[in-house]
Specification:
The protein is of the alpha+beta class and about 400 residues long. The chain has 3 domains: about 1-165, Alpha-Beta Plaits (2-Layer Sandwich); about 170-230, DNA polymerase, domain 1 (Orthogonal Bundle), CATH 1.10.150.20; about 245-380, Dna Ligase, domain 1. Helices cover about 35% and strands about 20% of the residues. It has a 5-stranded mixed β-sheet with strand order 5-6-1-7-8. Strand 2 and strand 3 (about 45) form a beta hairpin. The longest helix is centred in the middle third of the chain and has 21 residues, at about 260-280.
């Protein structure tokens, strides 16, 4: 008889805000919101004391202040959060080697083969919660289930500071009347499309004809039907999958319109993309430029190039050529640069002398910046682009290509 998997989802409660409160006793028990350092920052995380007033992630400082006049704004310290994430990973590995750091504040643990060594799944969950509280002074919620989907559901429905184990025999009854968008991965768009088919609950989704779902959703329909039944084949990913793209974007300190100003930021972003690609040995041959206007309308255009690259100036040159090929409709508030179609570098030496010299220069700059900080050497062209992105990406991971430079 096949043994059911046992998966833990460890989700930190109001992570950034909790870390700030744990390291600053004056903030404990008070409504706080973690923000970036820029003039156009938004709330990245709010404490549960602030959430009682309706303060949510993504709100402007003005909106948060209006809801909670006595809220305390704290500029985020990315070093604290990444250090805590790394130390949390070490803690998880005391219970199983099968750990996936899904995001900076969430992890999946496959304890199928180890939970009997520690007194069972609930005992492990209780121990992890106690160790995190004792070592870091913060709370987490732990969900346990037969797969990642159900473990995530158990966590989401138990916040904050909860612990819930949904056993295999409980799944069907639990999902029968549950709205479909309670499931991880089903957002507003899919929910609305399902509603047009008369499908509102997970039970209805699980019983829906496969032909109907495939006709409206393609191959994703197969996954959706399985999810409605509580079935989810995705395993805990122990090693980072090969990336499809490497990109960076930033909201600008102020709206800009001049090409020269945009060029400075595009070079800065191209360097960030190129350096990360070089660090992990990737190169790509599709350059994408993203522009978001002050109206929040977003424009994206890409360009395929003849050979693979991770060279800063080549990425910059092609991103700039995309900019020059479009007619801007308004002033710009966000710029993004992405390198996609990425593969592992072949390691072959460049035959063209100019390209070889540029690669050697990039390698030398990377070495200096790795040792002394990313601003130790910068291209003079983007010195005027003084503001760097200071809100850590949710995609950050402790290792691999998603270990994005932080400030």
């Amino acid at each position: 008889m096949k043994t059911s998997k046992v998966i833990l989802c460890v989700d930190m409660d109001a992570f950034f805000a909790s870390v700030e409160q744990a390291t600053n006793p004056k903030l404990r028990g008070k409504p706080i919101a973690v923000i970036g350092s820029g003039a156009r920052t938004v709330v990245t995380t709010s404490s549960y004391e602030a959430r009682k007033y309706g303060v949510k992630t993504g709100m402007t400082v003005y909106e948060a202040k209006k809801l909670c006049p006595h809220i305390i704004f704290v500029v985020g310290d990315n070093t604290k959060y990444t250090d805590t994430c790394r130390r949390l990973e070490e803690l998880y590995r005391k219970f199983t080697p099968q750990v996936e750091i899904y995001s900076i504040d969430e992890a999946f643990l496959d304890i199928t083969g180890s939970h009997h060594l520690f007194g069972g799944p609930e005992k492990i969950g209780t121990e992890i919660k106690g160790m995190i509280k004792g070592q870091f002074g913060i709370n987490c919620t732990i969900g346990i289930g037969p797969n990642i989907l159900i473990a995530k559901l158990a966590s989401d429905t138990s916040k904050p500071d909860g612990l819930r184990w949904i056993k295999p025999e409980e799944v069907k009854g639990l999902l029968e009347h549950m709205p479909v968008d309670e499931l991880w991965g089903i957002g507003k768009g899919i929910r609305q499309r399902l509603e047009t088919l008369g499908i509102r609950t997970c039970g209805e989704l699980g019983r829906a004809p496969m032909e109907l779902l495939r006709r409206h959703f393609g191959i994703i329909g197969v996954t959706l039907k399985a999810m409605g039944q509580g079935i989810y084949a995705r395993p805990v990913v122990l090693h980072e999958e090969e990336p499809k793209s490497i990109g960076h974007s930033m909201t600008l300190p102020k709206d800009i319109y001049l090409r020269s100003e945009m060029a400075s930021y595009i070079l800065q972003l191209s360097e960030m993309v190129g350096r990360r690609a070089r660090r992990y040995g990737y190169a790509g041959k599709v350059i994408t430029l993203t522009i978001r206007y002050r109206t929040f309308e977003t424009f994206t255009k890409q360009k395929a190039i003849s050979s693979y690259t991770n060279d800063t100036h080549e990425i910059y040159y092609h991103a700039l050529s995309i900019l020059d090929s479009i007619r801007l409709k308004d002033s710009v508030r966000l710029i993004g640069v992405r390198l996609s179609g990425v593969v592992k570098e072949s390691g072959q030496m460049a035959l063209v002398d100019e390209i070889r010299k540029r690669r050697e220069l990039s390698k030398a700059i990377d070495t200096v910046c790795e040792r002394y900080g990313e601003d130790a050497l910068v291209w003079a062209t983007y010195l005027q682009a003084v503001e760097k992105p200071r809100v850590i990406s949710p995609a950050w991971r402790p290792s691999g290509v998603k270990n994005i430079d932080i400030i």
